[in-house]
């Protein structure tokens, strides 16, 4: 265990009120005892009530614990030793070291939070009526939009190609369309035609299937606009578009299947909605607590002094990262 952690643990155990505050009386005149006491260490007293409390804290209610005078004296010796450690730490200024003070302040802050904000948060709840109301209020956002699964055949054409190259690609795609219209009913996509005609590596070996497209979110996808527009215009499963000219080639699109929009069931969402509402309440409670606490703390901020503080580290590097170089070709 780190020395600072050990020191803080000792100071926290004995320096935060367990044995009473440190007296400001002169060393020659000991502070008066707060009640019937068992031992004195400097100006601090181990009272009878404190000793009993410590026995209980250390398992004194268990059979056999602290039944003998030897056991009770061992406990007292431990309390005296630890109090002497705290006194020595104070004398050497350990409690004034920044790291120790930060740790002690953190302990105090955590203890205060546990007794105030955390208790308030534990009492927060979300009723079934709250959950139902939230579900109804956000019904639109809980609706799964209509979507469609598309397949395509692509023949790429260079941007600087002449009209003859485009005409040739369109003629070849027209052949593919004729064959696509004659595919068996049990082939919902382009089947082997995608492998025969398409140059799109990602889809040609999957019957040309490029995946699901949400009807109201076409802008999210990177496919050519001609593909998306045609796919969204197809009405029935199995429909095939006309030959399309896109920005970088000629396309053919087929609607594999379509699913209508559907509302998600309340029972499937209730737990998540409740957790979200509870998190909102927890966050709001913490915000209100923080605002009230700082308001009561009589805070004054010198903005000019804050602005004059220079950063302790260099500024972040905003230069865009360059992609790694391509590996050298062998042979």
TrEMBL record:
Compositional bias ranges of the Pro residues kind: 321-331
Listed name of the protein: peptidylprolyl isomerase
Reactions performed catalytically: [protein]-peptidylproline (omega=180) = [protein]-peptidylproline (omega=0)
UniProt keyword list: Isomerase, Rotamase
Family: Belongs to the PpiC/parvulin rotamase family.
EC top class named in words: isomerase
Region annotated Disordered, chain positions: 312-331
Entry superkingdom: Bacteria
Pfam families cross-referenced by the UniProt entry: Rotamase_2
């Amino acid at each position: 265990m780190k020395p600072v952690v050990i020191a803080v643990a000792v100071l926290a155990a004995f320096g935060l009120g367990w044995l009473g505050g440190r007296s400001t009386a002169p060393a020659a005149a000991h502070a008066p005892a707060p009640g019937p006491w068992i031992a004195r260490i400097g100006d601090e007293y181990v009272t009878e009530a404190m000793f009993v409390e410590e026995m209980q804290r250390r398992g004194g209610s268990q059979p056999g614990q602290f039944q003998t005078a030897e056991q009770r004296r061992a406990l007292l010796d431990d309390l005296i030793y630890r109090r002497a450690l705290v006194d020595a730490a104070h004398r050497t200024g350990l409690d004034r070291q920044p790291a120790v003070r930060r740790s002690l302040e953190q302990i105090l802050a955590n203890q205060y939070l546990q007794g105030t904000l955390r208790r308030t948060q534990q009492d927060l709840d979300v009723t079934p009526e709250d959950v139902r109301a939230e579900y109804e209020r956000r019904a639109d956002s809980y609706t799964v939009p209509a979507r469609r699964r598309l397949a395509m055949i692509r023949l790429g054409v260079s941007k600087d190609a002449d009209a003859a190259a485009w005409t040739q690609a369109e003629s070849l795609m027209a052949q593919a369309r004729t064959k696509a219209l004659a595919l068996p009913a049990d082939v919902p996509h382009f089947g082997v035609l995608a492998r025969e005609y398409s140059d799109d590596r990602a889809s040609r070996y999957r019957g040309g299937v490029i995946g699901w497209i949400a009807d109201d979110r076409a802008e999210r996808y990177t496919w050519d606009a001609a593909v998306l527009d045609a796919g969204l215009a197809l009405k029935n499963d199995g429909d095939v578009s006309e030959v399309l000219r896109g920005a970088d080639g000629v396309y053919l699109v087929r609607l594999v299947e379509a699913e209508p929009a559907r509302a998600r069931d309340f029972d499937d969402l209730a737990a998540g909605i409740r957790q979200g509402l509870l998190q909102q309440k927890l966050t709001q409670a913490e915000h209100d607590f923080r605002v009230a606490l700082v308001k009561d703390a009589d805070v004054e901020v010198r903005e000019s002094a804050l602005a004059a503080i220079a950063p302790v580290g260099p500024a972040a590097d905003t230069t865009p990262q360059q992609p790694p170089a391509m590996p050298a070709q062998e042979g």
